[in-house]
Amino acid sequence: RFPERFIKNTDYYNSLMMMYRCAIREIQTKLEVLDDEFSVKYNRNPISSIKTRIKKPMSIYSKLQKLGYEFTETNIREQLNDVAGIRVICSFIDDIYTVADLLAEQDDIKILRIKDYILNPKPNGYRSYHMIVEIPVFFAEGKTPMRAEVQIRTIGMDFWASLEHQLRYKKELGSNKDHELISMELLECAHTITAVDNQMQNIKKMIGELN
Ligand code: 0O2
């Protein structure tokens, strides 16, 4: 079994997680500033909500093990991109790209990788826009670049992903005899949500043209 209690009490581990939490705060503030500015200029908010999380010790351990690395500070920093996670929930599909572009334009943020699962959804129906970013955080000992994963998605995409995640992990979908049927149902739900997202986007456009 994984020595979770031991890891949690280790000073270096706590200090590293504190650094990731600070990176999350920096990015969250940037997103809130963009949303505030947008609401003053255009009288609406592209961001519906922001959720953040630090990857749990057990998940960090498992992912490193899966990749064939030991549980060390260097490996956590160098091999994992999603210890710090920020999920941005937008109202409309075009808001996702607006938020992503405005974030990417900021000169202290470095974009390490982009995965556009909206343009190219996963075979199971998962849709979301993923950015792996690096942001400098200023600590007493100097500036440290910290990595984080920013997932940007609509309310609909988030609704689907949250429920699919719950079903997949909690109910051990893989061992269920109706696995294939459930996967097909989930894919159908993803298609329905895509259609609704597109329809909402069109309605927004029509209203915009009227104004
Ligand atoms: P959790 O619990 O959300 O942290 P890579 O980084 O390229 O080596 P990885 O990690 O598979 O490969 O990257 P990817 O595909 O960008 O996915 C990372 C995260 O996206 C996942 O983190 C989920 O949060 C989300 N995600 C990806 N695919 C799915 C999916 O099919 N369903 C749902 N619900 N979420 C998905 P974690 O660590 O898996 O989980």
Key features of this structure:
211 residues; Beta Polymerase, domain 2; 2 domains; 5-stranded mixed sheet; 5 strands; 22% strand; binds ligand 0O2; GTP_Pyrophosphokinase
Could you explain the architecture of this structure?
The protein has two domains: 4-158, Beta Polymerase, domain 2; 162-210. 55% of the residues lie in helices and 22% in strands. The longest helix has 32 residues, at 11-42. The protein has seven helices and five strands, in the order H-H-E-H-H-E-H-E-E-E-H-H. The chain is an alpha+beta fold. The protein has helices at residues 4-9, 11-42, 57-67, 73-79, 93-104, 155-170, 179-210, and strands at residues 47-54, 84-90, 110-116, 129-139, 142-154. Helix 6 (155-170) packs antiparallel against helix 7. The protein has a five-stranded mixed β-sheet with strand order 1-2-5-4-3. The structure holds ligand 0O2. Residues 81-82, 115, 122, 124, 126, 130, 161, 164-165 line the site of ligand 0O2.
**What general form does the structure show?**
flat
CATH architecture of the largest domain: 2-Layer Sandwich
Helix content: 40-55%
The figure for the number of domains is 2
Domain RelA/SpoT: 52-175
Protein name: GTP pyrophosphokinase family protein
Organism: Blautia hominis
Pfam families: RelA_SpoT
